[in-house]
## 1
Amino acid sequence: MTTKDVKTMKIAPKVWRNGEFIDWDNARVHVMTHAIHYGSSVFEGIRAYKAERGTAVFRLTEHIQRLLNSAKVYRMDIEFSRKELCQAAVELVRGGGMDECYLRPVIFRGLNEEKPSFGVNPFPAPIDCYMAAWDWGKYLGEEALESGVDVCVSSWTRTPANSLPAVAKAGANYMNSQLIKMEAILGGFSEGIALDDRGYVSEGSGENIFLVNNGKLITPPLGASILPGITRDSVIAIAKELGIEVVETSIQRAALYLTDELFFTGTAAEITPIRSVDRITVGAGKRGEITKQLQDVFFDIIYGRRPAPNNAPWLTYVNDTEEKKTATASAKE
Ligand code: PMP
């Protein structure tokens, strides 16, 4: 793909690499990079929104913490602190003049050109850390947020936690996700839901899943080989604030067909209703009431129109200088 092709999307012209900003065109790796052969990368997906008071990154600290956790699982020593990585993200959005964007930090095992090593052993490969940003519209389509999507249950099992731990957002996990996604697309569905190795519902190829039954939210527990989704966590906090009961429990495949409402959560997918599973209509076959209520509150928070539950600092405004932050804090005192 040429840069010109890429630039049909709005992308931040600079990429953050190991502590400095470089041009998009120079953000390249060698074909013998360890991660290309052996899947040795961990990454994040983060969104920034044009909130009422300016562009703000949603739950930046939590995303960067999850990135560091993923790196820790794979014994990748990072020379940057959580604060430095958050700062890099803010500068990337601000410097790129992005109103809204998707941020992609990625840490991977690279190539030491002086002393190459091409085997599986990851230790000799240096750790590289990059962050790029681009304008990414609605992941499952513009209409999906309202009308819902048609999905299937995948014939592929989610990788068990003692094989590729879902708690780490590793590039290699997404080979499993790709099998799920390809099968879904070729079957005429927008997305696939994987069951875990015990046959219980785990998650979509890139989303967590929630059922709404008798007014309660039901979602697989963190033990069910799922990524600890930050949108999942946000939805749980919002539901609790709204007085909606949340139950984290094992879910049978058939329960997906019988529930009143069903939806995906994810940074890319946000809160996307599901209107059918395996061509069986879910509930009324359109976005349900509770899904809509949660979506409305979620978007109000994201766009800075409503505080997060317990006034948690979910938004990081990219144009807030340290002085401005201090001034706002002291004005509140
Ligand atoms: N599960 C998987 C497999 C994902 O890739 C994602 C997207 N990061 C999610 C769940 C949702 O996580 P989050 O809400 O943190 O984006």
## 2
Amino acid sequence: MRYSKLFGKTIKEAPKDEVAANAKLLLRGGFIDKLMAGSYTLLHLGRRVEQKIEQIIREEMNTTGAQEVLMPLLHPKEIWNETGRWDSAREVMYQFKKNDKEYALSFTHEEIVMDLVRKHISSYKDLPVKIYHFSTKFRDEKRVKSGILRGREFLMKDLYSVHVSEEDMTKYYQEVIEAYKRIFKRMELDAILTQAAGGVFTKGSTHEFQVIVDSGEDEIVYCPGGDFSANAEVSSVKEGKQCDLGHGPLKKAKAIEVGNIFPLGTYYSEKMKALFTDHSGQKKPAWFASYGIGLTRAVGAIVEVHHDDKGIVWPESVAPYSVHLIEIRNPKSEIRNSADEVYARLQKEGIEVLYDDREDISAGEKFADADLIGIPIRLVVSEKTQDKIEWKKRNEQKTQLLSVDAIVKRF
Ligand code: ATP
Ligand code: MG
């Protein structure tokens, strides 16, 4: 991508009303644009990061045998009335009337999945079902001061699994925990499996994945040895208590909830008559669980964790491009051609390059923009580098002069 052609460039100052680091950096870097509080456009750079995250999640979901679908976002009131959530979740749902009929915009999909199951499943032979999708959720959030960590409209991956027994559900639930650990590790988020706070979903024991960072809205009490963590909002376990396994006193820290998983049991299937016939021909309610990861929140969480005073420092796995190629132009020299050649060569090798080919922009400005945008490798072609190219990692000071062949080899 030629930066001169990219829609959505860096800007000098973030809007005054933004306080969160993720929002300031993503806005300044040209990753997002703000429409109103809690509502952002993912510009091309932001969308690329989100798509990288999406692909990591997709791969790990598929590994558990789950199948990707896409469910509607416009829901009739009747389906929410079947579980009572039209009223009990009224505060969070966007509900409205059109031509005498009432609707809600999706804030989650349990009811929709139960409707699918009761229509498409009849026997134990049809189970388990594991389906997921990536789509928008709408929630009337009261406080939206954390940038894309908390939107009124945001992207989520939600997975739903349906089983013949509690045992089967629990077994898959554990598999998903392992898949989630791999997902967050791949995007370089150190997510801690945490006993959850309650919510509109269930009263039972659910789990959150929490990333410790000062800007987090949640608080967890956790063991530094890694064997215990609970959301401080509900837990009776207090900071300072000695860990049962001898790892010392429990600590308390601010954290961002990046994922939440719910072993829902038969609550929804009983209410919605999502039944199957077992071996003996008896009709039984299916065992049901749901599992969410906030995609746009993950983008924000990565920025909260991976940045410095100059800008974002993307992990390689989610960076919008692998290489930020900068040309420093001397109007009298032939530099333009060789930078174009490097760009063409890297692209031919399948390397994702953002090429800052802008004219009339100083070297200093280009370097500052590269630091702000945060692509892992910076390459500079200038008169000074002659037939070589300067290589520098975003998170290191050291530079090296390399040939284009040597650079290609490194990938
Ligand atoms: P929170 O406690 O932060 O309000 P939640 O528990 O209501 O979130 P879930 O219903 O568990 O959220 O949603 C699953 C995942 O979706 C969350 O773990 C989070 O990553 C993401 N998510 C939830 N609400 C938002 C939001 N308003 N903006 C962006 N992501 C969100
Ligand atoms: Mg949650």
